[in-house]
Amino acid sequence: METFNSSSDKAFFLVGFSDWPHLEPIFFVFISIFYSLTLFGNTAIIALSRMDLRLHTPMYFFLSHLSFLDLCYTTSTVPQLLINLHGLDRTISYGRCVAQLLIFLALASTECLLLGVMAFDRYAAVCRPLHYTTIMHPQLCQALAISSWVGGLVNSVIQTSLMMAMPLCGHRLNHFFCEMPIFLKLVCEETKRTEAKMFVARTIVLVFPAALILGSYAQIARAVLKIKSMAGRRKAFGTCGSHILVVSLFYGSAIFTYLQPKGSYSESEGKFVALFYTIITPMLNPLIYTLRNKDVKGALWKVLGRATDSE
User: Cellular component per GO (predicted)?
Assistant: First the structure.
């Protein structure tokens, strides 16, 4: 089997879902719909966060970053998947594959960090309400958001550099995009030390923010249980419920994929799990936040009311 590290004339073959040709037309229709909903929903949240003064708060500042992140995140994989499902071209050049790996990993890492930041924001809002505006001042919010983006990019550059320095055998990727676990299956020499370094990096990006989130919500639960009125408890839990749901959806699938040992990773299973965190979760995020949040729904109806009046 041919071994190569980098070459402009090499290309990978993305198997995608060609093993189930009867499912490809169905996947194409549903993924096209989900992608359209993702673009519309996340764009709407960004627009509402800018247009309505009531949403000029730290929570919606981070939410607009999450929405922009989801737009980029899903766009880094879905167009290639739709081309693959349509059967037009199942190959991807070495350079494009590495670029996709770098971009996707950077965006995924940034989302891990940003969800941790959003958990801290909810902790400050519920557990330190009197000092919330002092703690979450605009300069800190901007610094936390920038740190999430920079941290995600740095993690991606490190892991991608380590990955592409390892010898790869074969050009057949049993996936619908260039993802880290599937590349590790192509490594054809003993590289345990490099793989161990990459595993540590993945663990830091996934486990540390998850631990921060769990700690934040443990403190939130303690604070909420001290509230005597049921109405106050429902309001406090309501402000955090949407974030908990987003975190559960994203982290559950990401940890399942990226913290598995290489030997136990199932390529076929991994493809279907990847559909969940690359397509389903970015589509659900706007629905979760808008359907469970009165402020967002109020801003939406306000904008729609203006549009109706102008007609």
Answer: plasma membrane
